[in-house]
Amino acid sequence: MPASAARQPRPDPAPTTVRSPCISVCRIDPRTEWCAGCWRTLDEIAEWGTMGDAERLAVWRLIEQRRAGG
After folding, report:
1. Inside any domain, residue 14
2. What pTM was estimated for this model as a whole?
3. Cα 52 to chain centroid, rounded
4. 3-class SS of residue 41
């Protein structure tokens, strides 16, 4: 790879339209390892900014399952 290609910035992730489930209540339940506010795992929270819409919708489906007890 040419040296100039290595210096190229990575493109920003594609814009998304799926809103974040964050409600600014950030406490991880040690039993479930889910946030008490948004019901996401730490990995889901950390990766949210780089996820596309399909991945974010998949997380929302997991959140709905968690809230329903499943």
Report:
1. no
2. 0.76
3. 9
4. strand
